[in-house]
User: Fold this.
Amino acid sequence: MDETYKIVVVGERELVIGYRLIGCSECYIVDEKDCASKLVSLLSRKDVGIIIASDFIRDHLSNSDIEKIEFLTRPLVVFVPSQIKIKKGEEEVLKEVVKRVLGIDIGA
Assistant:
C-alpha cells in the first residue's frame, strides 16, 4: 500500500501565501517568537513528508534541533530564502541559490 505524505509550509506571511496559491493546504504563518517551536512540533508528525521553512527559522533553532534536522530523512526540511533575512549582504547568497537551482545568472 502506498503511503501519502503532506507538504507543510512554515514561514512569514509572504512565503505562506505563495505556497497556498499553488495548492499547499497546510501552511503556518509564524513570527520569531513561535517559529522554532512550530517547526520542532512538525518534525514528530508521521503524516508529514516535506517541510518547507523560511531560513530565518534556522537562526532560532537550538544546535541539537539543527543536528536532528540534518540527519532526518522524513520529514525532509528544506529552508528557502526569507524576505525577513534578505539584506544587501545576503543578496549575493540569493543570486547563488537562483543560479544553482534555476541555472540563471541574475547578477549579470
Notes: Residues 91-102 form the longest helix (12 residues). Strands lie at 6-11, 26-29, 48-54, 76-80.
